[in-house]
Amino acid sequence: MMTAKEYLGQAYRLDQRINSKLEQVQSLRELSVKASATLTDMPRSGTRNVQRMEDIIAKMVDIETEINNDIDDLISTKQEVMSIIKGVAKQEHQSLLELRYMCFKSWEQIACELNYSISWVLKVHHKALRAVDEVMTVKEKKNGQA
Predict the structure, then answer these.
(1) Cβ density class 4-39: b for 16+ within 10 Å, e for less
(2) b/e per residue, 79-112, with b = 16+ CB within 10 A?
(3) Staple partner for 135: which of 28, 29, 87, 99, CB 3.0–4.6 Å?
(4) For residues 18 and 84, what is the distance between their CA atoms, to the nearest angstrom?
């Protein structure tokens, strides 16, 4: 079983993976521009550049398909995580968890938004994680009985 922190962090890791793939697609787009520029320079070795362009476009399409799948995973993961966060009793805990694990805000940003010191935010976070553990345990027991 995952810890509360690992469970809540899934959305962040998916978001990072999506961003990485978006950077890869951008890099391939830039490469395709370079490849098409060399295509128009001189006609002597055009076939090799056309093949290169096709390869780049195929890779872009593959990565974009992966991105779409990852976005679907991110949405469903965020829905699952949000249902766990909503199960936490204290509103203060819910707010902090949403800012951290749904909006991916830094501790400093969270402290500013909630009008707390960073040390207090970290203490509340620790308590909120324990509350998430309880919610996850209850949910797991319910799923085991169903």
Answers:
(1) beebbbbbbebbeebeebeebbeebeebbeebeeeb
(2) eebbebbeebeeeebbbbbbbbbeeebeeeebbe
(3) 87
(4) 23
**Reported pTM:** 0.76
Domain locations along the chain: 4-145
Per residue in 69-78, pLDDT (tens digit) is 999 999 999 9
Could you tell me the two tokens for 141?
């027991």
What is the rounded CA–CA span in Å between residue 135 and residue 81?
A: 11
Specify the DSSP class assigned to residue 89: S
Q: How many CB atoms lie within 10 A of CB 139?
A: 14
CB 56 within 8 A of CB 31: yes
